[in-house]
């Protein structure tokens, strides 16, 4: 019951000095709202980046050769190398193909456009979670028979044909400077990306069998693959790169490797460090807010010296007075923390809405912020509360 009595007294004191109490809370409010907003935006950024990497291909590995004066024709990858890696690693590899690409003007009657052409193998659509909305993706038969078929973007289909029902239609592209009529086997829809607004070109990507690029297949400098998610992409990728190096008479580490896991980890690390650094700067205002609470509580103790003397003369113990002022400091601080959390969440949600990205607000961060603000109040309220508890009741009653 004494705890509830102390809470009632604390609330009564706060209500009787509304403006002073609000100004006392202000430092806590600013600090907590800043920390919440920064932490939430950091988590939102990580979630958005993770989604972008998932669209690009989770556990994806690219192995490529360094271009230098020491480069030899035998350093290029061959189709035999690819078949050997597939056989050697079996189920550890879910997708493996040379990386071939080019760009071309496209035409259909009087309609023209520009397209990026990517040479891939069957199964590529599963690696990048491609959404096929019409027709089908490339098959193993398409790749082996060098069939001139393509999967086009919905936007390109609408621009060139005025419709997405274009399966079976043909368009003309240039492959190795040779005009080629290509039949459309499927239409895909690209997932919205945060990088869309940065793209200034209207060109889209069209996917064709990599065997349609003979000049690049004969001199393959890059291999694209997806590692089984139960395996470490970095570990398996390094093994493959070293095996290829040995087969070409090169030292381990000759071939370079990039993984989505490694790139995502690097970006997460940078974002985490940046969020912690900015959050630490914002948290300084919590220290200022704590000092403000200590200052006001000392003033409150001085103003209520006579009240303390009366309570002690009526039998209040030292710990009763200590808890009274300690609870008051914690309530002021926790209230500031709740208000600051609300403002921080609102700021984070508003910025996410402006950037058109879904906000990510961790409940753990909210709970930690409120608890931390209460701890700040307890820590900085301890000295004033202890000072009030030590007052001599006779001297306190004499105080005017």
UniProtKB/TrEMBL annotation:
Residues 21-242 form the MacB-like periplasmic core domain. Keywords: Cell membrane, Membrane, Transmembrane, Transmembrane helix. It is found in: Cell membrane. The chain crosses the membrane at residues 21-42, 276-301, 322-348, 360-383. It comes from Acetoanaerobium pronyense. Residues 280-393 form the ABC3 transporter permease C-terminal domain. InterPro entries: ABC3_permease_C, MacB_PCD, Macrolide_Exporter_MacB. The keyword Transmembrane helix applies. Belongs to the ABC-4 integral membrane protein family. Its main location: membrane. It holds the Pfam family FtsX. The keyword rRNA-binding does not apply. This is ABC transport system permease protein. It comes from the Bacteria.
